[in-house]
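Quick one, C-alpha cells below. Sequence please?
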C-alpha cells in the first residue's frame, strides 16, 4: 500500500510541475520555455513600469558588455532589451569587429525618439554666449560650453556641466552629441579624437551624474551651469532658482528607443504598443527617420573616453 501512495505522490508532483510550467510558459504547451521579462536599461525602467510589462532593469553598459561577450543568445536572459539605438549599434558592431556570431539585432522599427538637449540657466547662457562671441539668442552649442568649462562667469560662479553617466541609455547618446558638437560635424571617426578634442571632452565628461536635470533644478546655477539630457525629460522644467533655457545642439543627434532581441526572435505587438505609449507619455516623439549617430565602433571609443573622465 505504501508503494501505491508513493507512486500516486510522484504522479501528483509531476502533474503539478507541468501545470506550473504551463502557467509560466506560452499557451498550454508544456514544452514552451517560461516567458522572459523585458530587460530595461536602468534609466528607462520607469517606461517599462508604466507600460505594465514584467521587467527587470540593468545599466545599459552592463547589458552591452554581456551581449558583446555572449556565446549564446540565451545570455540576454530576457525576451528583449529596451535601450537606445546607440547601444544596439555598439553591440552589433563590436561583435562584428571581434569576429563573433551576430546573435542580436534590433527587432522592428524604433518605438519612439528624443533629441538631445543642453539646458542652461538663462542668465548664465547669456554670459556664455558673450564669452563665446555668439548672439544672445543663438542655440547653445557643446563647443562653447566645453571651452568655458571651469571658467568663472560674471555672476561669480564657475561653469560646471552635468550629464548622464555614459553607461546609461541616455548617457551614450548625450556623449555622442557632445563629440559631434566639439568636432562640428556628424560624420566623424575615432581617429578625429586628437589631444585638443580629448581636453575639451574631459571638461564635458567629468560631471557625470545619475540625474543631471534633477541636480540642476535642486542645487541651482552655483552647482550646475549646463546640463545635458534627453529632450523628452526637459520639456517642462521649473525651478525656484531661476529660468531654464532648453537648447538643441547642432549637429542634431537623437535617441531612438528600440528593442533588441535574438536575431530569430519575435516581439509581441501588444508589448510594443504598450511600451510606445509609455514613451510618448514620458515626452518622447514619433521616430524621426535617422538618429544622426556615428557607427558602433566610434560609439565604443566615445564610451571609453567619457568613462575615463568621470
Amino acid at each position: 500500500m505504501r508503494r501505491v501512495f508513493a507512486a500516486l505522490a510522484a504522479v501528483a508532483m509531476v502533474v503539478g510541475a507541468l501545470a506550473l510550467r504551463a502557467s509560466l510558459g506560452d499557451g498550454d504547451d508544456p514544452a514552451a520555455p517560461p516567458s522572459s521579462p523585458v530587460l530595461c536599461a536602468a534609466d528607462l525602467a520607469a517606461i517599462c513600469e508604466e507600460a505594465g510589462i514584467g521587467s527587470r532593469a540593468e545599466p545599459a553598459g552592463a547589458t552591452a558588455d554581456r551581449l558583446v561577450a555572449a556565446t549564446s543568445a540565451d545570455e540576454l536572459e530576457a525576451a528583449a532589451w529596451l535601450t537606445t539605438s546607440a547601444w544596439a549599434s555598439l553591440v552589433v558592431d563590436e561583435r562584428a569587429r571581434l569576429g563573433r556570431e551576430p546573435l542580436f539585432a534590433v527587432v522592428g522599427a524604433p518605438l519612439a525618439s528624443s533629441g538631445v538637449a543642453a539646458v542652461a540657466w538663462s542668465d548664465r547662457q547669456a554670459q556664455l554666449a558673450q564669452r563665446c562671441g555668439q548672439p544672445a539668442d543663438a542655440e547653445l552649442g557643446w563647443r562653447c560650453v566645453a571651452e568655458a568649462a571651469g571658467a568663472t562667469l560674471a555672476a561669480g560662479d564657475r561653469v560646471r556641466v552635468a550629464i548622464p553617466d555614459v553607461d546609461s541609455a541616455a548617457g551614450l547618446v548625450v556623449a555622442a552629441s557632445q563629440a559631434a558638437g566639439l568636432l562640428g560635424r556628424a560624420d566623424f571617426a575615432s581617429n578625429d579624437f586628437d589631444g585638443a578634442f580629448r581636453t575639451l571632452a574631459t571638461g564635458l565628461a567629468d560631471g557625470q551624474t545619475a540625474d543631471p536635470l534633477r541636480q540642476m533644478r535642486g542645487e541651482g546655477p552655483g552647482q550646475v551651469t549646463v546640463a545635458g539630457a534627453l529632450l523628452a525629460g526637459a520639456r517642462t522644467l521649473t525651478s525656484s532658482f531661476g529660468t531654464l533655457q532648453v537648447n538643441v545642439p547642432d549637429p542634431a543627434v537623437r535617441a531612438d528607443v528600440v528593442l533588441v532581441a535574438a536575431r530569430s526572435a519575435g516581439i509581441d505587438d501588444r508589448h510594443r504598443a504598450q511600451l510606445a505609449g509609455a514613451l510618448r507619455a514620458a515626452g518622447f516623439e514619433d521616430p524621426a527617420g535617422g538618429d544622426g549617430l556615428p557607427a558602433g565602433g566610434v560609439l565604443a571609443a566615445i564610451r571609453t573616453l567619457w568613462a575615463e573622465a568621470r
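The radius of gyration is 23 Å. Confidence is low (pLDDT under 50) at residues 1-35.
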